[in-house]
Design brief:
It is a single chain. With 289 residues, this protein is of the alpha+beta class. The chain has two domains: 140 residues, no CATH class; 81 residues, no CATH class. A hairpin with a 2-residue loop joins strand 8 and strand 9. Helix 5 packs antiparallel against helix 6 and helix 5 runs parallel beside helix 7. It is elongated and about 90 Å long. The relative contact order is 0.13. It binds zinc ion. Zinc ion binds next to loops.
């Protein structure tokens, strides 16, 4: 389903009384409506993002509380002049009739921010009023990332984000919002959605993912070579066995089967196995001379 969203940022202008009261909870001195400029922005949502991750609804609701008071930063053109804005209100809202890529009701975290109406901010305010095309990105931390397929922690389960299982694309569900540090306006390519910078366990998760990819490739190689060396072995059985072996065992067997496969191939025996057929030029080598 195609989702078309409003611009990420929408200028409002001077705050109403209730809004001003919320702003003044965060300021050192009482501000008047004329002194501040307010705007609304879409901080993040519950749709699956380009990293194949999404927030669960509980995380969005918690982020609404955590984002109040969070500072906004602008890309270098602006930040050099010290422009800052702050979220004074946030709320998880739904948009009638809109669904996420996987068919759940679409919800997003809407934030209301204010900045001082100063000379330095005038050009930035004009840009926001003019409907700037910049994206909003948020920095926050979550407690865990769970697998959308099996519900286990993403770094401990056998599924890979972005891959399909029984017609379902696996993605990580960001659960348990822990902190919201900041948000920013960034210039990004138009087709990209508002970005989310997630920090909790991110590096560990990436490492675990790389480790799983490496093990997968070892397993594939072992099955391929074992298929050549032991042509009578069933492919399914080899895959099952390979799935239970660790790195050291896999490397040992790859070495063993590689030796056998080499001897068999150099003996001129034509072999093929599964999808990984022995290349013709090797198998037919004897006849090419
Ligand atoms: Zn899983």
């Amino acid at each position: 389903m195609q989702i078309s969203k409003d611009a990420a940022i929408k200028g409002i202008g001077a705050p109403e009384d209730e809004e001003l009261a919320l702003i003044n909870r965060l300021t050192r001195r009482e501000l008047t409506a004329d002194e501040v400029y307010t705007f609304a922005l879409r901080l993040c949502d519950n749709d699956i993002d380009r990293d194949f991750e999404r927030f669960d609804d509980g995380a969005l609701d918690r982020l609404a509380e955590l984002f109040v008071g969070a500072p906004g930063v602008f890309d270098h053109q602006w930040s050099a002049h010290g422009q800052t804005a702050r979220i004074y209100r946030a709320e998880a809202v739904s948009e009638a009739g809109m669904c996420t890529a996987d068919g759940r009701p679409y919800r997003f975290l809407k934030g209301w921010a204010y900045m001082m109406r100063t000379e330095e901010n005038a050009a930035l305010i004009a840009e926001i009023d003019g409907g700037i095309k910049r994206e909003v990105s948020v920095g926050c931390a979550v407690e865990r990332v769970v697998c959308s397929i099996c519900g286990e922690p993403m770094d401990q389960c056998p599924h890979e984000k972005g891959e399909e299982y029984d017609g379902q694309v696996c993605h990580g569900v960001l659960t348990g919002a822990a902190d919201a540090y900041e948000w920013s306006f960034v210039a990004v390519p138009a087709q990209r959605k508002a970005g989310v910078i997630k920090s909790a366990g991110r590096r560990l998760e990436d490492e675990a993912r790389l480790g799983r990819k490496y093990l997968k490739s070892l397993r594939r190689e072992m099955v391929r070579l074992a298929g050549i060396a032991e042509p009578e072995a069933r492919h399914g059985l080899l895959e099952q066995v390979a799935g239970k072996l660790d790195e050291e065992e896999l490397l040992g067997l790859i070495k063993l089967y590689q030796g056998r496969a080499d001897r068999l191939l150099s003996g001129g025996v034509q072999l093929s196995y599964g999808e990984q057929a022995v290349p013709q030029e090797i198998a037919d080598g004897a006849f090419l001379i």
